[in-house]
Write a structure and sequence with these properties.
It is a single chain. With about 220 residues, this protein is of the alpha+beta class. The protein is built from ten helices and eleven strands. Strands 1-8-3-6 form a four-stranded antiparallel sheet. The chain binds a DNA duplex (13 and 13 nucleotides) through helix 9.
DNA sequence: TCATTAAATTGTT
DNA sequence: AACAATTTAATGA
């Protein structure tokens, strides 16, 4: 009984038994309270970060205090490989929007997997590719994106089945949290969600969002 | 198991 | 930002 039997993790399942054993031996799991900085921009990358439970936000803070939220990472998401691969400092802040269970795979183990496992490399390649298209899609329509668009965009990203395999239909996220990710007030998030609900794309639940039509949500990403 | 209460979240102005 | 309504979770009989 390991943490990966509780939290489905595709890349782990693909590893050979001996590599799985090494990962389980080296990995660290931390219980982190809400609104806590896990990693700070400029820190040396010391491990690969996995979100087992909770929700984290990846953002960049500028000197004048403005915060640009890059993306949200729901359970099942892993991040930080970019900085690990380049062996450089993190270029963004990572912090929890609510109490979260965070796994950390040490840099040395990460490097060992890179050397030993082809399937691990394939997973990373896939993930990086998915991230690239995510950001391309975002810059495509960034200039004409209003609050509705940003909310829809964030939702579509959170339900990306390749990056976050654990999210099937319903994601536990409050409108406040979604507002933080989309940089929209809670009230505005609320009306944006109601419009999406009207279009039968999502269903608003207490403390959660249920996606009824993921394809329509993806379409919205490109139509705003 | 059910009723009461507090806390969290949502809906509206 | 404030307030009302709704849902959930906790408590105790």
């Amino acid at each position: 009984m390991s943490i990966f039997t509780q939290y489905q993790t595709p890349w782990f399942n693909e590893l050979s038994p001996d590599l799985q054993e090494k990962v389980l031996h080296d990995i660290i799991v931390l219980d982190i309270p809400a609104n806590t900085m896990i990693e700070k921009k400029g820190d040396k990358a010391n491990g690969w970060i996995g979100v087992l439970e909770g929700l984290v936000k990846v953002s960049v803070g500028t000197p004048d205090g403005k915060i640009t939220s890059l993306t949200g990472i729901p359970p099942g998401g892993w991040l930080g490989e970019g900085s690990l691969l380049k062996k450089e400092a993190l270029r963004y802040d990572v912090f929890t929007l609510r109490r979260s269970l965070i796994a950390k795979l040490p840099m040395s183990t990460f490097g060992y997997l890179l050397d030993q496992s082809i399937s691990f490399n394939r997973f990373l390649l896939n993930q990086l590719n998915e991230r690239v298209s995510q950001f391309i899609g975002r810059t495509e329509n960034n200039h004409l994106q209003d609050a509705d668009g940003r909310v829809a965009c964030c939702l579509a990203e959170l339900f990306n089945p390749l990056l976050y395999p654990n999210n099937h239909d319903v994601l536990p996220i409050t409108q406040i949290e979604l507002g933080y990710l989309a940089r929209v007030s809670r009230q505005r998030t609320n009306v944006a969600l109601k419009r999406l609900e009207q279009k039968q794309i999502i269903k608003i639940e207490y403390g959660a969002i249920r996606v009824l039509n993921l394809n329509a949500l993806k379409e919205l990403q490109h139509s705003y």
